[in-house]
Specification:
single chain; about 230 residues; mainly alpha; 12 helices; about 60% helix
Length: about 230
Amino acid sequence: MPSRKQTGVFGVKIAVVTKRERSKVPYIVRQCVEEIERRGMEEVGIYRVSGVATDIQALKAAFDVNNKDVSVMMSEMDVNAIAGTLKLYFRELPEPLFTDEFYPNFAEGIALSDPVAKESCMLNLLLSLPEANLLTFLFLLDHLKRVAEKETVNKMSLHNLATVFGPTLLRPSDKESKLPTNPSQPISMTDSWSLEVMSQVQVLLYFLQLEAIPAPDSKRQSILFSTEV
């Protein structure tokens, strides 16, 4: 679906936002991650525990109007509301971060049995994403890995984080489905939904478990200077 609006950040294409901000990773993503890394890394169930809905809506409104006091607001809110705001941002993108175009390919790639072929396929697909999508994902991926390093305290393993974020970052378009057209047995709606979600979780988990992603150095470095053009 096309964006309903071109102002604000929620529900607006990620490339539109980064171009407007002259950034590589949207400001909202950087701000939420920074605040969570400042005081939420040892919060039990971070990203799994729901934040207060009214706080999340207040932050959404503040980011949408570019409120200069948003960082002050964030510092006074429960960290789960900030985590919830970040998840909501990704959920409301008009197109998921992994894009409608590549979603079926990621679903096929994760199902490959040969590990060498799988890695080649998955990395090629990842590096084929539009620049804003790729850089934002790499930024988020590094953050989620750091969250999982505190698993003994926050109880959020890589698998837990993949379960939370997988269906948010990867969603099939209405026209696409990875399910077989002629399954040997009838598949119920519940079963098909479960298979979709399982695939989405596995794709994200795959990238979380990779030792390193050989993205071009220039693209990784550009994250560090994300206020530049």
